[in-house]
């Protein structure tokens, strides 16, 4: 057996040998998790708020810097805690098991479930016009979740192989679109075409950055599978900053096409900015290519989240704060994957998710900020293991910017704070219920 393989002992069968995840797969996982519908829809709203193409591009650049600081910070945590589990693992070890449980509960209740359901529904919206026949509502969305769960539940290599291929195809299509857009562009717009540019508003700028930051979420995807990665201390941090850098460059190029190569009036305040830009620049053929790119982006997002989300619940089960049923079975946590799929399908069936996105962004951003703050809680004697480029500037910038943007989101919509409070309260309640049950079971065995 070579150094890239590991043996896992199954309770009911002979040992299973599987190849550990390597850098290209981890980078692909991050790209798949980051690039969704956000980059193709956000700039129209940002233009409406800011009134300037240059300001929109500045917001996208700042969003990339914040995400890159987050990737560096999570890399430091992975160097110290190399198991799978993400925020649940980091907060449990550095802060308190209750904090970790709440982070895992947020992932199940909101983070992965809501994001999977939203991506699946959006996938159906973009793909349906490309299908020559009509399907009942939500069939495509539910089918996508089922297929992703079956592939990732079969074996690690089965799901990873297909996901890598689709991510490569998506990346290639994006490059084709970028090349086509620059070669086919007939109209070049700039800020001089705007009749009157409004004065700079910090509140409006920060508000646009809130939505743009959501498009950068997912830079930490590799930490959820750190325990399955080859040489996790070195490879996982590198995968995060490489993947985040690639996505940031793509975002800046794509949005420069949207806001500079298309007339301002055509896209301001519009959610389908990518389709409008493609139609304006290259006609119907380029518009169809964009629709296919968005559908592929959403497909890979669902695949990535179906893969990484259940790893959190499996880790919680191994630590006996979640039912033992959801532990790894062989090299995959099949029951946890099934749970994730069932919960996501339920949300798809009974929700349009129109009011869910802001709640997800606020709740998950606070969880990420608290996680990165754990870097400052690691004892000084052990801090040598978490040394990262930009320490401690990078984590301080990430935490400060994230808390600021979350505060702004609450100021605009206080209901988000109430929803997050109820989520945390339900997690605390469940934690003590499960803890009491485990104590009773232990006493009975004695």
Question: Which features does this protein show?
Answer:
single chain; 446 residues; mainly alpha; Amino acid/polyamine transporter I; two-stranded antiparallel ribbon; 15 helices; 2% strand; globular; disordered N terminus
Description:
This protein has 446 residues and is mainly α. The chain has a single domain (18-374, 388-438), classed as Amino acid/polyamine transporter I. Helix content is 70%, strand content 2%. The chain has a two-stranded antiparallel ribbon. Helix 3 crosses helix 14 (393-412). The chain is globular, with a radius of gyration of 22 Å.
Overall CATH architecture: Up-down Bundle
Largest sheet: 2 strands, antiparallel
Secondary structure tally, helices: 15
The secondary-structure element order is: EEHHHHHHHHHHHHHHH
In CATH, the homologous superfamily goes by the name Amino acid/polyamine transporter I
Nutshell version of this structure?
This protein has helices at 23-34, 42-50, 53-80, 87-94, 97-127, 139-154, 156-184, 202-216, 232-260, 264-267, 273-318, 334-350, 356-373, 393-412, 415-445, and strands at residues 5-8, 16-19. By secondary structure, it is mainly alpha-helical.
């Amino acid at each position: 057996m070579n150094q890239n393989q590991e043996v896992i002992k199954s309770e009911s069968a002979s040992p299973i040998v599987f190849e550990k995840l390597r850098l290209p797969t981890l980078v692909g996982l991050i790209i798949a998790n980051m690039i969704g519908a956000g980059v193709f829809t956000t700039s129209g709203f940002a233009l409406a708020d800011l009134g300037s193409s240059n300001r929109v591009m500045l917001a996208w650049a700042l969003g990339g810097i914040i995400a890159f600081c987050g990737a560096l910070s999570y890399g430091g945590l992975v160097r110290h805690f190399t198991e799978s589990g993400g925020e649940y693992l980091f907060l449990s070890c550095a802060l308190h098991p209750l904090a970790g449980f709440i982070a895992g509960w947020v992932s199940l209740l909101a983070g992965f479930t809501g994001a999977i359901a939203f991506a699946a529904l959006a996938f159906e919206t973009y793909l349906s016009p490309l299908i020559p026949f009509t399907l009942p509502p939500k069939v495509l969305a539910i089918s996508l979740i089922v297929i992703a769960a079956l592939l990732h539940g079969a074996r690690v290599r089965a799901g990873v192989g297909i996901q890598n291929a689709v991510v490569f195809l998506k990346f290639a299509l994006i490059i084709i679109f970028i090349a086509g857009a620059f070669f086919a562009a007939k109209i070049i717009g700039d800020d001089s075409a705007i009749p009157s540019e409004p004065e700079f508003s910090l509140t409006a700028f920060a508000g646009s950055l809130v939505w743009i930051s959501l498009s950068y979420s997912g830079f930490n995807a590799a930490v959820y599978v750190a325990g399955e990665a080859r040489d996790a201390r070195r490879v996982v941090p590198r995968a995060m900053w490489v993947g985040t850098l690639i996505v940031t460059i793509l975002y800046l190029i794509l949005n420069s096409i949207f806001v500079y190569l298309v007339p301002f009036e055509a896209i301001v305040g519009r959610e389908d900015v990518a389709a409008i830009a493609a139609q304006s620049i290259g006609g119907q053929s380029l518009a169809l290519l964009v629709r296919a790119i968005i559908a592929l982006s959403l497909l890979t997002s669902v695949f990535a989240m179906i893969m990484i989300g259940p790893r959190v619940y499996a880790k919680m089960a191994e630590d006996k704060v979640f039912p033992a049923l959801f532990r790894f079975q062989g090299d995959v946590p099949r029951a946890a994957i099934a749970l994730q799929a069932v919960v996501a399908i339920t949300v798809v069936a009974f929700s349009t998710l129109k009011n869910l996105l802001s709640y997800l962004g606020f709740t998950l951003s606070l969880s990420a900020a608290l996680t990165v703050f754990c870097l400052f809680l690691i004892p000084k004697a052990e801090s040598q293991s978490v040394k990262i480029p930009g320490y401690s500037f990078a984590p301080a910038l990430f935490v400060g910017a994230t808390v600021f943007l979350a505060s702004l989101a609450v100021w605009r919509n206080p209901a988000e704070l109430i929803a997050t409070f109820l989520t945390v309260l339900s997690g605390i309640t469940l934690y003590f219920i499960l803890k009491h049950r485990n104590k009773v079971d232990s006493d009975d065995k004695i």
